[in-house]
Design goal:
about 400 residues; Rossmann fold
Length: about 400
Amino acid sequence: MQTKLPETYRQTPQGEEAEAILRSCVHCGFCTAVCPTYQLLGDELDSPRGRIYLIKSLLEGEAVGAQTQQHLDRCLTCRACETACPSGVQYARLADIGRHVVEQRVPRPLRVRWLRGALRLVLPHTRRFALMLGLGRWARPLLPAALKRRVPVPHRQRGWPPPRHARRVLIHAGCVQPALAPDIDAALARVLDRHGISAVPVASGCCGAVHQHLAAPDAALANIRTNIDAWWPLIEQGAEAIVETSSACGAMVREYGHLMRHDPVYASKAERIAAQCRDPAELLAGLNLEDVGRGRRIAFHAPCSLQNGLRLESLVERILRQSGFELLPVAESTMCCGAAGTYSILQPELSARLQERKLTALEQHHPEVIATANIGCLTHLQGGSALPVSHWLELLA
């Protein structure tokens, strides 16, 4: 794709990256076939190719307004287009750049600004989120059915084994998962303990994804620096990996090296941490796991962050089969469930349509339980299904 970005912008790190990504796109349209919003809406501007044209136009200086902003907001950042793209277009990085530029140029209505600000004020902060969640659970019996489904029921946390093995890994607690489902990390710790690996919990806060995808990259970088400062001494003491039990957080941490590449203090540390970030499946794949499934029929939803961000397609499913679970076929297994971080709150209608479509596929063969690998997907699916929805690590433990 030919570009005509202003010279002053092209010479910035952001402009240099955007131009390289734009020039790698060859207009083939393979991305449209896998884009959830294009499948729902049938609008070229709600496809990756269409959004690339919009971003190109705004970066070249053309006037933009609320319509361009809306098309970029509707993107789930599921990255299915990246998996399908034969040219290797790094669409998610371009989308972040585009959203940031539009955010600076196009004012939002007061209500939307308030909502986005509230999400950034609460979600990345564990204590604030836990407080708000507690209030929601207290008021849950009084809420209308539609709102009641959006308030998840409490999950109990079982034991976390003490560190006793020479092999050690860090488990990053993240921001919302400790309040929503505190046993997920403990479940992984128990499984690893049975195989001679100790897990050390690290509660350093949000991975940065909330701010990054709400067009606040400076706040995301602040989260990243906080995490690096918390993790680095433990890495130097011999921890062999940083494990993210939420696949969306794992996909974000894998980007730390790229996002911090221009920071003279943190660049090399960020690159090493990104290289040492592991999804639980990568640790467990080489272990001789117990036959704990005993033929339980489960439907597994592979999050977009697992398939397209981490590129770990089918690895969790293989581990679950080896552990004795019967995995049922799921139609449209690459389709996003509609959770997508804050998307279910900011784009509720599109999110609900994707949720219904995904649950129809997951429930088709009557599983005993639905499993997934990301806290956002888990909570979103749980809000629309009568079946139990669990993290796959909870099933293993």
